[in-house]
Each structure stands twice: as structure tokens, then as C-alpha cells.
Write a structure and sequence with these properties.
Layout: E1 5-10, H1 12-16, H2 20-29, E2 33-40, H3 44-50, H4 60-67, E3 72-78, H5 82-90, H6 103-107, E4 116-118, H7 122-132
Bound molecules: adenosine-5'-triphosphate (ATP) and magnesium ion.
Adenosine-5'-triphosphate binds near residues 54, 117 and 120.
Length: about 140
Amino acid sequence: MATNRTFTMIKPDATEKNYIGGILKMINDAGFRIVSMKYTKLTKEQAGAFYEVHKERPFYGELVDYMSSGPIVAAILEKDNAVADFRTLIGATDPTKAAEGTIRKIYAESIAANAVHGSDSDENAAIEGNFFFSALERF
Ligand code: ATP
Ligand code: MG
């Protein structure tokens, strides 16, 4: 499978604080091309389905409530080595552990409200992109 696409969301804490422009600038400046993008809001059911892999984790209910609490930006991004390079750009899940200059270090407020999502594998990037975008929208 190709290794040049990943999927991201700008999460409700970041859209609420008007960080969309700053985060998209960091993404573009790091060399990612925006393939597909939409501004939308997840229902609880949709957020639950998206994060199904975490349903046994203790924070699942909190995560679903939070991810359906406000608008998000969903996007498919393209760059060589996209999945790994994007995880480097966003930094650690917990912003107190994220490296200087990463999106989460700059914009995240907590381990739960951590500003952005980034796919963790090529396989999940494809699954997550397909969750939000039809084939016609993934040009
Ligand atoms: P993401 O999948 O959103 O890119 P991640 O891969 O860095 O984040 P995961 O382990 O996949 O981290 O967790 C998914 C999301 O669940 C996190 O981004 C965060 O919003 C939330 N989360 C993770 N751990 C915790 C926790 N201990 N307490 C509360 N929320 C958490
Ligand atoms: Mg993850």
C-alpha cells in the first residue's frame, strides 16, 4: 500500500480557539499537500464509530463526548512518508511530553483535548480517510 497519505482532524478544542489557520499553516509549511478537506461536526455515534478501536480504554466515553462537542476539520494529507512524518509534526499524545515546535506542544491543552489527530499506520490512514470522504472527494 502507498505510504504517501495520512488522515488528520483538527479537534474541537482547537477549532473553538481559532487555531485552524495556525495549524493548517504548520501542516503546509511542513510540506504536506491537502488532498481533501471538510469542516464538519461528528455526532456521538459517529465519534464512537471513528474511535471504535479504543472502546475498551477507560477514556473512551470522555473521548467520544469531547470529539462530538464541537466542529472539527477533517483532511487527507499527502507527502512522502506521510504517516510517520505527520506523527513527528504533531508530537506526543500528551502535550506536556510533546517536543518543542510540534503542533501539540504549541496548540494542545491536555492529553484529551490535544488539538489534532494523526493516523498511526497506512492502513488506518486509508480507513479513516474513507470514513470522511467519498472516492470522488479523494482526488
Ligand atoms: P490520535 O489517535 O488522536 O492521533 P494518538 O494516536 O496520539 O492520538 P491514541 O492512543 O490513539 O493517541 O488516543 C486517541 C485519543 O484519545 C488521544 O488523541 C486523546 O484525545 C485521547 N486520549 C488518549 N489517552 C488519553 C487519556 N489517558 N486520557 C484522556 N484522553 C486520552
Ligand atoms: Mg491514535
